[in-house]
Amino acid sequence: MKTLKKRMLCISLTAVCALALCGCMETVEPKGKPIDDESIPSEYSLINEKKLPVMRNAADGMSDMTYALTGSAESNIITYDLSENKDIDLSENHLCYYSYMPETERKPETEGFFKSCDKAELYENAPGFDTLVCNMANGIGLEYDSKVPMSENGAAASVQKAAAMDRYGITEKYSGEFLLTDMSLLTDPEASDGITDDEQNNIKKKIMICGGVYTDILIVPDRVRAFGNEKTYYNDSFERKKGMSADKDTDHSIVIIGWDNNYPKENFSAGSKLPEKDGAWLCRCYDRSIAGESGSIWISYEERSFLRAAALDFDRYSYGKSIMRYDETGSLESIKNDGNEPTKAANIFSGANGKLNAVGITTFADKQKVHIRVYKSPEPDKPDSGQLAADTEVTVSYKGYHAIMIDSDVVLSENEKFSVIAEYENDGDIDSNIGKVPFEGNGTENAAVFSKAGESYIFRDGKWLDTSKADTAKLFKKNVLNNCCIKALIGD
Prior knowledge:
Blueprint: E1 7-8, E2 17-19, E3 25-28, E4 43-45, H1 64-79, H2 92-97, E5 112-113, H3 120-124, H4 129-137, H5 155-166, E6 178-185, H6 197-210, E7 213-217, E8 224-227, E9 230-233, H7 246-249, E10 252-260, E11 280-285, H8 288-291, E12 296-300, E13 308-316, E14 318-319, E15 322-324, E16 333-335, E17 343-350, E18 354-363, E19 368-376, E20 387-396, E21 399-407, E22 411-412, E23 417-424, E24 437-439, E25 447-448, E26 456-460, E27 463-466, H9 470-475, E28 487-491
Parallel strand pairs: 2-21, 3-20, 9-12
Antiparallel strand pairs: 1-14, 4-10, 5-25, 6-13, 6-21, 7-10, 7-13, 8-9, 10-11, 11-12, 15-28, 16-24, 17-23, 17-26, 18-21, 18-22, 18-28, 19-20, 19-23, 26-27
């Protein structure tokens, strides 16, 4: 288990809150004033609203996913007024470099995303969306660019810049200035017609509330057109198919920064036919070979290759305390119980010293109901024993990662064990995502994942089972489960 040694959590999750030790059910959404569909304007631009930093082109050999996630974070931080600097510049270099711990720095049985290749290759092959999101939720990555600059001379030069970080030690990776408190996924990648009308409205509302919405898309260069001073894109030949995912079926990461319902369809002159209707998203693309110097490109509402759209929420935190967790790479596996039995998972932690402010969970379905319980001093292998310290029921509006505020005085001492149980309501359909709980799984080619007895559990057939054991994984027809992706966010 890793803890955030250098910083103290000071979360103000104003809308991500729930009542403790009561039977109330709260609906959890990211913070920000709600907007109804009728209040969505016909056009909107974060550029005009001054809620975007200046455009920064991705350095040669650098993953644009890291730039798009950082750009979305910067827009959210400006929108929420979390920084005095309205042209905030966070370090893509830091986020990418310290998402890895290269093999040369690896210690035995240390979790993380490792590469045995030269460090310069780390930048071009980012560890992936789930791992980067996990790192930001663990407090890793979002440091100011002035401390860890990215060289536009390319990834090789950035390795030299990153070497300056090493003088602080590898723990500098835990020193991000901002903490991810929510990541809401707004689209269904298997919807045959692309982004639905409801999803369009949700994306627009999130842009107005949270800032730029991160998205992945397939861009075919010969379908990009220059129309006057603007770049436009529409690929009429892309077809969505069952089993598609943003990780394997897209090639660019961009940020949606606005829209115009009346943007003329005639401006999209690529392909065998024009879109059927007017309307387009205004996007920021960090590849100037695609979007030009401004980085802005208009993409038709009817573009079907938007396979992932994510709204990110951040908060600031300062020195001192910890984020208790066992997962360093994100959820690479999910399981659920058969039938209607709720799926319950738990982590047992120790070593905290302070107040439990929030619990971090991942959901795989919209409107997922989750029951969170916290116990102090549980018995070994019995997460639901000991003193019940918090009891919270929530309905989470969107699939994704969510920090759920615990509105009770759960004060923990350094030598005290405590458990966090997340119980997911189940719909009885083994093929649906409702009721699935997140686990590390077996990792990937470059992701090292480990677990130890006594850390994570799943409840099945009336008893708690240790998920570090192979026999537990076999009950769910999995090779490996490893740790459950539940976090405990500790502050004063």
